[in-house]
Predict the structure.
Amino acid sequence: MSNTLGLLFRVTTFGESHGPGTGCVIDGCPAGLEVDLDFVQSELDRRKPGQSRLTSQRKESDRVQVLSGLYEGKTTGAPIALFFANEDARSKDYTHLEHTFRPSHADFTYQAKYGVRDHRGGGRSSARETASWVAAGAIAKLMLKKHGIGIRAYVSQVGDLSVPLPYSELDLSLTEDNPVRCPHPETAEAMIALIEEVRKEGDTVGGIVTGVISGCPPGLGEPIFDKLHASLGKAMLGINACKGFEYGSGFGAVGMKGSAHNDAFYQEEGRIKTRTNYSGGIQGGISNGMDIYFRCAFKPVATIVAAQESVNDAGESATVEGRGRHDPCVVPRAVPIVEAMAALVLADFICLSSSSSPPSTH
Amino acid sequence: MSNTLGLLFRVTTFGESHGPGTGCVIDGCPAGLEVDLDFVQSELDRRKPGQSRLTSQRKESDRVQVLSGLYEGKTTGAPIALFFANEDARSKDYTHLEHTFRPSHADFTYQAKYGVRDHRGGGRSSARETASWVAAGAIAKLMLKKHGIGIRAYVSQVGDLSVPLPYSELDLSLTEDNPVRCPHPETAEAMIALIEEVRKEGDTVGGIVTGVISGCPPGLGEPIFDKLHASLGKAMLGINACKGFEYGSGFGAVGMKGSAHNDAFYQEEGRIKTRTNYSGGIQGGISNGMDIYFRCAFKPVATIVAAQESVNDAGESATVEGRGRHDPCVVPRAVPIVEAMAALVLADFICLSSSSSPPSTH
Amino acid sequence: MSNTLGLLFRVTTFGESHGPGTGCVIDGCPAGLEVDLDFVQSELDRRKPGQSRLTSQRKESDRVQVLSGLYEGKTTGAPIALFFANEDARSKDYTHLEHTFRPSHADFTYQAKYGVRDHRGGGRSSARETASWVAAGAIAKLMLKKHGIGIRAYVSQVGDLSVPLPYSELDLSLTEDNPVRCPHPETAEAMIALIEEVRKEGDTVGGIVTGVISGCPPGLGEPIFDKLHASLGKAMLGINACKGFEYGSGFGAVGMKGSAHNDAFYQEEGRIKTRTNYSGGIQGGISNGMDIYFRCAFKPVATIVAAQESVNDAGESATVEGRGRHDPCVVPRAVPIVEAMAALVLADFICLSSSSSPPSTH
Amino acid sequence: MSNTLGLLFRVTTFGESHGPGTGCVIDGCPAGLEVDLDFVQSELDRRKPGQSRLTSQRKESDRVQVLSGLYEGKTTGAPIALFFANEDARSKDYTHLEHTFRPSHADFTYQAKYGVRDHRGGGRSSARETASWVAAGAIAKLMLKKHGIGIRAYVSQVGDLSVPLPYSELDLSLTEDNPVRCPHPETAEAMIALIEEVRKEGDTVGGIVTGVISGCPPGLGEPIFDKLHASLGKAMLGINACKGFEYGSGFGAVGMKGSAHNDAFYQEEGRIKTRTNYSGGIQGGISNGMDIYFRCAFKPVATIVAAQESVNDAGESATVEGRGRHDPCVVPRAVPIVEAMAALVLADFICLSSSSSPPSTH
């Protein structure tokens, strides 16, 4: 379970940051889909560290190797296996952590759960895992494109600096124009300055990524326990450092009254739409054809330069100092990850939706 | 899938608000567990409508019938089937909605997904469904109690009125002392007044429920795609009207720096603890032994008295008036539901955790 | 898992032979399917005991109650819950078995697994469970009919008496003409005589049920671990007393050479067919459009009149005498069960097959 | 689903015979298990082609590469990814099959299902896939050994030549002494002669593999739809060319009477045993502590030298000639595969069994 996402469009991941590599198996991708590997690589390049001063200086080329499942550039219905060989893995950087638990990392909990752990680079809990997510998500995006569905994410907040406009008033095509991936240029500039400042202090800062799904047909999502927003929420909360998820009006709905919050229906050009979209494109767990949008809160990265109080695996007091090469703020690199996870969730629901249609009359 | 929750401790639900009844099948509950049916019923009584002026006046006795799985008061390892016969179901109240979509309800999306729907009382999307959740959750609570795990929830916000203290400074045993289920008496009083006012206006208001899990051993949760908080989040987001979920520091983490947010480890009486608990008891998706706490945002109930613009299933303009018997604020009755969903998630992870332990040496 | 069958068209069962009743929840049945309840009941009547001298004299009316999921005679996409209230349950018949394990029953293994058991009538392992299978299977048959798929089963062997012709040379419409459900009248007569003789001896005898699926389109089944025949085999082996499964040439293939066994392809009226059908309609785990046929071996029923050596739950020697009302031969009543299980497997693959089709070009 | 086996001890496979390679991801293997890679490789060597004149002369070294999941020779609880690079893949051998369907292969059904296929070497349906099964099974065997469970398989029939003794009267340690893997030396010799003769004719012949599981504790297996023998049956039927499965008395039970077939219980040294074992170690789908044994029927390999009638993917008549390097009889190499599949099924039930135990009293 723990390493597999999805019911029909399924991704199973493997690998540690300091072993031979990481990778994934995508099972259930429909046959006959053309897979543009340049697009997959370009998505990976958005995720990789070392892109700018704002991100970890760890060098990873993140070249994807296709081990199976494609034939003459198309999917065959067989599992697609992808692999990323590890490079530049300085295991020695982690020797001092072999017996000590870094605060607010997964070191202690992995030890508690498994009785053993690969301490190098966070082992299985390393962010390197997300290369597989982004690659699988890129293939999901290609499939979704055939269904007219597009997915965009951007940084809407860093520390206390937030974009002053809702997504619908932004030009999301500007997102990739700056290293912080914020489509509001003035805010982006301030965010960059803040991250640089935090980095100089050896500290880290949190942020928010907003995701927007457009072109989603009505009827996606499964009632009760697999509601569309609940599945999106689980996927987002599965991203390292994500502490909260809200969709549509989100926590802001709490202070509203029903008379203001309800989205009136109207008809336009044969399509049923809503005048407002506090529902965030989802009602009763099922898409209604409007834009789906959501926000993911990320905590400040746990690796900092200052010495911190901790304990070791013998239960004794210990001091931890951050020596790895990490990001001062996770959100710029989280943008393609949020998009990928959304794409994987949507792809699974697209596959599921075909199965819930009425039987054809013979 | 859509009507089943859990991998090993599995709950499958069924039923509509206006058919013979609703119910569930609980599969995977360990054998030999004593099931106190009075406790199960008392949990159901916390959920049922008509408890006070703050809730819907619809009368439901919500008597649980056990159809299978218990023998001499104990579980046998066989599926436990529970049933709630429908009573006081005024189907006629819904005749005017047969062809019209209520704004911000699931009417339109069910029609879009299935091409057919049982319009009476929301059919499958009715809150009546949650009786099964609460009953199954009560059995899960009994199982968790054997493992030392306790679950409490309470209303921490209604509209703009929020409890001024964190959960750890409240006496949660006061929660059931007032109909709004807020353990902070002064705030509770204000909340009650606000809900009454909103009700008189024929309007509704949102709120927040906070959940607290104590006594959870370290090691629960599965890395990567089934992180403990992600599974909790999905369960909570599956509750009708829930628009957002956060755990630990949540959205508040965004504005913090890593140096302030990290939870230092220390040792006390042989147990490893953290000085602060911004992590919310979960690190890397796995419990660390500290309290787990989280918050769920609920939108204002969609059913209001005022006439609303909408369309009918022919795509024509239509007006919807609320005539059913509904709650002005969902959060007081959401409290036992939040607890139940948390219990079901935890019970599943408890079952899973036994399977990930090292093989015993023979 | 253990009480759920299927991935998308899912049946979850519950109930014991001596509690309030048994039943099931069918989740994933497509919306808009007309459910002819008379047909469902007629299938149940084929399964119920007391039909003839050949079967148990236990009286069960097996009236199906629909608890949810149908609206105006059609499925809505919501779970369909079915219930069978227990009647004529003589629990006292089983008092002598409270502490003793009947040979070749599930008494000992349930006790070993769960540490507790409901000894009355076999509890969960009772054949009464199969009422749910047959009812769910009837709904699956209605769905399959829309896809042109028909399922027939018949008794092809009792003891050493076997039908001398392959299924393709029999008139399967004769199956229901005699109580043993064998479409070869002379063999049927001999089988009936044999079963009567065995019954008079207080003994039981085994048999074989052959199943035939016609009209199955090419492409059903999933490669590797969910091959169509493997899923059929698992479903059949899950029927009480089933000891073996073979499809197509089955065990008979062992003595054949490849040159004789291979099924040559040819084309007829635009359809690709095979000249012989040793493959049993399935190649590489996927249907090829030819008839699918298979055989299920059933052991003699374990309940006999003679006293038998056993032990009790204290591990002491004990003697077991058969006092319940049981069948001298299980296969006549197994016929509708085999059909139902085949229908459930096929319905699931039909649902799955829609999801593996190439994405439509938008 | 189709490429994943197991619920908790899960194996997901990927790869084609003529791409970069094949492999698998094992998720859910308990942490702390010592993995002897020499043992894993020795199991693979039993499976690989080119071992003797009786098997395909295709050369594959089948060296397993561990991509993840082991740390200092032990499992960490993280997914174990294994990879087998393809060598000696003569794709040109298959050019003539690009558009033609080989009789009794999966060519036509894959084309029908997916609309596309990798025709080289059977693509995904190649027996090369089973390298992953055997490697994963070897790790499962190491885990099972800790629980005292041993698994042995052997060839019990080739063509019409069958071993004249039941498994319990054979010395299974002799199995590996001859290339046909039959522990009865005289029969082995005759089998070898038969296979050689068949090979010279350019033909193929079927056979039976018998599997024996010893040391299995009572209580493994899940009632109703995941019975132990049903899961074993599905796993075996999933092996290429397997046409039938029976356990215990199997098809032989059909001609028996209940009075002869029932296994009387007795007690010996504190353990409950049965005097006979027609039940094959499983009652009601759950292990009873006796040996589990079963038989798998394999058809003759479909690839033969003689020209065969067929059609091409345009639906026109075509002739197929066998030119690849294939086995005249599949059963000798099927022996380690049967063992591996049995080990994977048992490992999953061992993991599941921990979860169904009564909750510990706190």
